[in-house]
Amino acid sequence: MFRDRLDAARQLADRLTIYRGKHPLILAIPRGAVPMGKLIASQLEGELDVVLVRKLRAPYEPEVAIGSVDESGWTYLSDYAQIDGGNAAYLKAEKQRQLDIIGRRRAQYTPIRPAISPDGRLVIVVDDGLATGATMIAALHGLRASKPAKLICAVPVAPADTLAVVTELADEVVCLEVPPFFQAVGQFYQHFDQVDDDEVIEILKKS
User: What H or E segment, with its residue span, contains residue 165?
Assistant: First the structure.
C-alpha cells in the first residue's frame, strides 16, 4: 500500500538511482503520473515530458479498457475487444474521440514547444500503475519507433499477467509490487486523488 503517488514515485526513484546523472528523459502518462514524473526527473537529474496515449473504452463499461491509441494513431486492441462490444463502427468512433482528446491535451500541455524527442535517449516511461496495461502498451510501442537508446517501463504496481506483456515491449521493467489479487490500481493507494489538467500544465510549464 502506497500513501499516495508521490510516495510511490520516491520508491521508484530509489530503484532507478543507477540512472541518476545520465540525463534520462522521464515520460509520464497523463494525468496521474505527471506529478510522479516530476519527482523522478528531479531525483534522477533528468528531463520531464509527457507521452500522450489514451485507452479505448468498452461501450457499456467506460472504465474498462479494450485497447488504446497513441498520438500517431497506432491502435492496440485487446483479445476481448469484440467480446466487450467493440465492433468496427464503435472502435472507429472511439478511436477518433480519444485522438481528439490527445490533440487537445498536446495543445494545452506543450503549447510553446514540441514534444521532446526520445531519439537516442535513455527513456523512462512512468505510470501510477497498470491494470490491463493498454495505455502503457501503446506508449512503449510508439516510443520504440522513435529509437530510444534504452526504453524502461517504471510503475509502482501491476498484475503479473499484464507485466508479462509489457516486459516484451521494454528493455527493462521496474515494478515495485506484483500483488496476487488485483482489481484496480487505486486499491493500492491510501490516497488516490484525481490530477487535473491545470496541475499538469503547471508542472510542465515549470519543467
Answer: helix 160-167
Rounded Cα gap, residues 146 and 120, in angstroms: 8
Lowest mean pLDDT among 86-100, 116-130, 149-163: 86-100
* 125 confidence band (pLDDT: 50, 70, 90): very high
Q: Where are the beta strands (DSSP E) in 52-191?
A: 53-57, 65-70, 75-77, 122-126, 150-157, 172-177
C-alpha–C-alpha distance, residues 68 and 76, integer Å:
5
Average pLDDT over residues 148-169: 97
Protein fold of 55-108: Ybab; Chain: A; (3.30.1310)
DSSP-based three-state secondary structure for 8: helix
Mean pLDDT over each residue of the chain, to the nearest integer: 94
- CATH class of the domain at 5-53+117-206: alpha beta
How long, in residues, is the chain? 207
